Amino acid sequence: MKALERTGSLIAHNPMIILLFAALLTIASVHYSQQIEMNVGTTAFVEESSRIYQEYNHLYVERFGIDSIAVVIEADDVASPEVLKAMDLVSHHMLEVNHVLGIISISEIVADAEEQMTGTRKIPDSQEEIDQILARIDAAQLQAIMPDRKHAVLDVAVPLHLPDAQIEEIVTETEATVDNSIFPPDTTISVTGNIPLNISIKSEMSSNMTELLLVAIVLMAMALIIFFRQSKYPILPLPVVLLGIVWTFGAMGYLKIPLSFVSMAAFPILIGLGIDYAIQFRTRIDEERSLGRAADEAAASMTAHTAPAVFIALILTAAGFVSLMTSTVPMVRDFGKLCILGIFMCFLSAVLVGTTILCHIPMQNSTNEGGRKNKDVAGGVGPVLARTSRGAVARWKAVLAVALIVAIIGIHLDENIPTITDYKKYIPQNLPELVNYRHLTKFFGGTDAMEVIVQGGDLTDPKILKWMDEFASYELSNRKEVRAATSIATYVKAAGAGQIPDDKTAIEKIIDQLPATTTDQYLNDRDTALIELDLGNAQDNIGEKGIMNLKEEIDKDIIWLEIPPGYSATQTGKGYLLSTVIVGLTTGRIEMTILGLLLIYILLLIIYRDLIKSMLPVVPMVVVIGWMGVAMHFMNISYTPMTATLGALVLGVGSEYAVLIMERFYEELEKGGDMMDVLQKTFYRIGSAIASSGLTVVFGFSALVFSPFMITNNFGEVTVLSMIVALLMTFTVFPVLLIELEGRRDKMTAALAGIKCRAKDLASQ
Q1: How far apart are CA 331 and CA 643, in angstroms?
Q2: pLDDT band for position 406 (50/70/90)?
Q3: Which alpha helices (H) appear in 514-608, and where do they start and end?
């Protein structure tokens, strides 16, 4: 205790050293924050070192991974000579762009056909000639790029393994080429597809995070002015916490923690938690100084009593977030890392910089200019909370019954809450790039697919090609979700008049005559091949669970349709990869919550070495989690990678309030007095600070509700609700547990001693 008091005095007496340290750390943080990277790609959902990702990356992305930038053309007749000539110029320019693998379009098909007939590659001037060429094209192939005469798509193929910067350059070049193209006046052109959409999402995320922080700051400032207007400089905790956020940004860049859908919501949360730390320190210092103590004595008292309680709460909050490390979803783990880093940085800022400033500003006068005492808004809440806690204890059976029954119902309902992993549902639905993407899928179908990789010694062998054709036909016939199945066998069969030749030499001749863009897409070094199962708009049509079920059925089909000896087939691809996220979110969520509870209980047991003190903060958290299950069910809120962290958040934040009240209760109890009087005194003195800081945190979390990202918006609604429920339980259920368990301490101790004695007797026998 003396050492902690000396620490407070040192902080109060050495402001220049503290502020110099803060300045140096801030400069370093600004530098490292420039290294933060965005991650909305596959590695945000699946662990990069996992087997399933390695297969996806090495077997699919590196060998066959091709995505496309779609240029959608709409006109009265997209197959007119004027439109096709403009398309051909776009194709010609894009083929010269570095890393572009090829172009798929009506203009390419028509120009290639004209070259075969006349020896000159060009778009015919005659509409009749164009129509004759189109009539000879396979209907399925034509439908994919020109579903009708008013719509066509020009696909610019690029490899998936390219760095983001190079892909963005190709998109920029495509947009510039389209802008400078000369299409007929009635033509509408848009650049869309997965690649432009992902680039837009990253940009939107970056700007949205800035907006969220600004809104959170404004709301926090409003809350501080409302709840602490009786104090001098009521918004002082806010800049202190923002300093901690800057340090968090620096740590994030230094440790290479990426920014994702989930982690971008951590900052309003950290502002809320950090504000709570700063408010608790300020409240204690103001309380001590109002009693006439000097600034250094007030700081010493704060570091001896409040700082340890807040630090214990911080450790428990960290334990709740540590449970997220068990998630199989990387973005959930990154959220946990960021929150753990952030709460430590905000605590450090509050206890060092915040205390230094508080010790060197004058106290607010106790009277106003008219000579009347200022009304203590926070203090006015204290008596109400004291009466509330006493009333809850008086009706303890009813309070516990209602709390536990609703919690049990909520835990049961939680199992049936759906999970959303389609990232396109997370983003603003009016985002121009998403609107264009939806328009693309409306006419040309979706881009969802499952991929099967076939490996073996020589994939030009007739028996393996026939198996690939049989497998593709089986999937197309028996899996209604599969609308097309394409492989190298598809092209060999088409060239062989509907039959795959039995002669290997004939097969090799056919493959050698196929366009390079076709063979590269479906065959690699003749020892690895791709079977692509087109699912269209599977995310919208059958949902995440439907895709997961289809994945399992395809795996069974691979086994059932026995592949020839010496060959193997493995299902992979982005659809297969992301379907595993559902399992990670739905099965791992409960385990993470249970692990968090165990970690918090074990930490409390280590810190207090007292069964009752260790149990007290845990029970209200379980109740809050159960109540949130009821709230999410009736509000029709689905789980996402972000709301999957709700259990950890409730554990972390809920335990803080319980620990702060418990610490103050036992501090007052040591001074003597009846337990009920001590309870009321505790809630009178600290309850107002907790209520005010808790509501300030609610204001901060409310910033998430203003996000245009559905994933963040829903999370904001859930976190605000969970904070309100946590406060409600803190002022009703927790005082009941505090009095009832502490009142039965002697009986519980005696019962435990009896159990130990009986255990020893049994052991001795």
Answers
A1: 12
A2: very high
A3: 516-522, 538-541, 543-560, 574-608
Quote the CA–CA distance of 696 and 377 in Å, as a whole number: 14
Integer CA distances (angstroms), 87 to 90, 97, 197, 268, in order: 5, 16, 22, 47
Q: What angle (nearest 5°) sits at the alpha carbon of residue 758, between those of residues 752 and 759?
A: 90
Q: Are 628 and 722 in contact (CB under 8 A)?
A: yes
Location of structure tokens 């204290």: 382
Crossing angle (nearest 10°) for helices 462-478 and 488-495: 100
449: three-class secondary structure by DSSP:
strand
How many helices and strands, by DSSP H and E, does the chain display?
A: 34, 9
Angstrom distance (rounded) from CA 415 to CA 409? 11
Q: In what order do the strands lie in the sheet with 151-159?
A: 102-104, 151-159, 66-74, 188-192
**Most distant CA pair in the chain, distance:** 106
Residue 634 has φ and ψ, to the nearest 5°, of -80, -20
| Residue 632 CB contacts under 8 Å (≥ 6 apart), including other chains | 413, 414, 417, 639, 643, 718
Residue 182, burial from CB neighbour count under 10 angstroms (0-12, 13-18, 19+):
exposed
Cβ partners under 8 Å of residue 229, min gap 6: 377
pLDDT for the residue numbered 583? 63
CB atoms within 10 A of CB 378: 21
Task: Name 70's Cβ contacts closer than 8 Å, sequence gap at least 6.
Answer: 153, 154, 155, 156, 191, 192, 193, 440, 444
Mean pLDDT of 458-467: 90
pLDDT digits 0-9 by tens, 310-347: 888 888 888 878 877 877 778 888 888 998 999 999 99
Q: What is the mean pLDDT of residues 291-306?
A: 83
> Which residue is listed with tokens 């009240």?
661
C-beta of residue 538 within 8 angstroms of C-beta of residue 448: yes
Q: What phi and psi values does residue 159 have, to the nearest 5 degrees?
A: -75, 145
Q: Are strands 66-74 and 151-159 parallel, antiparallel or unpaired?
A: antiparallel
Residue of 571, 534, 554 lying closest to 454 (CA atoms)? 571
Residue type for 236, please?
L
Phi-psi region of 508 (alpha: psi -120 to 50; beta: other; left: phi over 0): alpha
Report long-range pairs for 468-477 (Cβ below 8 Å, ≥24 apart): 468/529, 468/531, 469/493, 469/500, 470/561, 471/531, 471/557, 471/558, 471/561, 471/569, 472/531, 472/533, 474/557, 474/561, 475/533, 475/554, 475/557
Other beta carbons within 10 angstroms of residue 635's beta carbon come to 11
**Helices 688-701 + 710-731 axis angle, to 10:** 170
Whose tokens are 């052109």? That residue is 189
**Coil, strand, or helix at residue 518?**
helix
Question: Please, where are the H alpha helices in 149-293?
Answer: 164-180, 194-227, 237-254, 266-290
- Asked whether the whole model's pTM tops 0.85, one would answer no
Q: Is 755 exposed, middle or buried (0-12, 13-18, 19+ CB in 10 A)?
A: exposed
Q: Are 42 and 53 in contact (CB under 8 A)?
A: yes
Among 266-270, 293-297, 378-382, 622-626, the range of highest mean pLDDT: 622-626
